[in-house]
Structure formats: C-alpha cells, structure tokens
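1st attempt posting a full record on here, be nice pls
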Amino acid sequence: MFRTLILACALIGTAFAGDPSTLVLDGSTTVGPIAKAFAEYYMQNNPDVSITVSESGSGNGAKSIVNGTCDIANMSRFMKPEEFKAAADAGKMPVAHVIAMDGIAMIVHPGNPVKELPVEKIRDIYMGTISNWKDLGGPNKKIIVVSRDTNSGTYETFETLVMNKQKMAESVEYVGSNGAVRQRIQSTDAAIGYVGLGFVDNTVKAVTVNGIAATPQTVASGTYPIARPLFMFTDGYPKLGSHLHAFVTLYLSAKGQEIIESIGFVPVTAY
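the predicted structure (as tokens):
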C-alpha cells in the first residue's frame, strides 16, 4: 500500500527532483515520521521551499534514487549490493546519511498477559513452531502473526536479526506499513507484530526481548537485541549551502535531535 503525504508551501503539484526550490523524498515508513517532521520544520523556516514526502517502503526508496525520481531515499536498512550496482549503472552514486537509531519493538494487544519473549521464541512463532499463546504463558488462543511486507527495510532487519534467514510460516499476515501492523494488533487480542520504536504507544504493549525493554535508552546503550540505524540516501554528497545539504544534515543540529527524540527514535549523537 502506498501512503503519500504532500507537504508544500507555494509549489504544490509542481515539485520535481532536481529543482533547487523543491525536495522530493520517498521510501521507508519507519523513517517517514522523521522526514515529515523535518519537512514541516524546514518549510516553516524556508517558505520558498516545497518538500514532498512519500512512504512506499525502503526498496522503493532505493529504486527512486536510482531512477532519479527523488532527491532523498529514506531507508530503514542499508542499500543492497544489487541496488548499488543498479545505481552505478544509472550513473548515480548513493551516499548514506545515518540520521537516527531505531529499535524494532515486538508488540501485542494490551490485554495479552505475556510480557517477555526470547528471540528464539519469537523466531518459533514466526516459523509456526509455536502457534498458541498458552505455550508462552498466555491464553489458549491461536497466535495471529503479523509481519511487514517483504519490500520493507524493517522486514529485512527482522529477517536478519530474529529469523536468521529462516522462512516464515505460510499463515503469517503481511501488511504494508508500521501503522498497519499497530492497527492490526490494536484490534486483535491474539496478534503479535513488530514495529519501529516510534510507533509504540499506549494502544499496544511492547514485550521485552531477552528480558530487555525496547526503549531509546536500551537502543542507545546497544543492549536491545533488535536495533538498527535509519538512513537517508542522496545521489552523491549534497552541494554545500544547498537546501538538500541543509535538510539532510538537520539530524546533526540540536533541533533535529530534539525532533528525533520527540518522535521516539534515538539521535546518533546519543548512541
């Protein structure tokens, strides 16, 4: 599912990649809230600039930077070798900017009594080896297992850090965004899913993983086991003094760090 937020000042509908008065961003739904908040702040201070933020997944963000249809590719994972090759073949030179750190939280319905899951048990749930909450100290209910879609950077991080590349069960449900995962957990008392740290709120419950809570503090300390950096990719290093350079380095400023923390992610300066 494609979800697009258009943030514009004076040039709504006329923005295109390459225009110095416009910035076009595409990619990760995890990085999306940071990008949107940055865009709002930047346009308030630069009313001549129009910024468009789309959330089509990390994989599509990579494609957009390769195709030249965005200025910034938001990605919750690093680019794959084949994506770098496609970029090089297209005459592009992707440059990674690590803008924040994130933890992937395992969430369940607030009414679920289960509070802690080891990584091995989470893997068993997603492989279908464990299929009932009673086997984990919960109610006698079939586990509804929810995953991000395979185009998602969050999925690929989960696949690496939790699944160890093991195949998920055929019964696993795939959804297109962090928000969709959260919504499914909110409405389904037997469901489990995973989301970026910034998507955890009081409508769901984040269980501890290996006894460690998913918090900005545990991500910053490196103790939470399911954590990763978040990226903004540009084609080459942005020209100094350009809007692109100012925007993509906003995360280094005190205001950028404040925005990142307010959303629930971890500034790289705190890691």
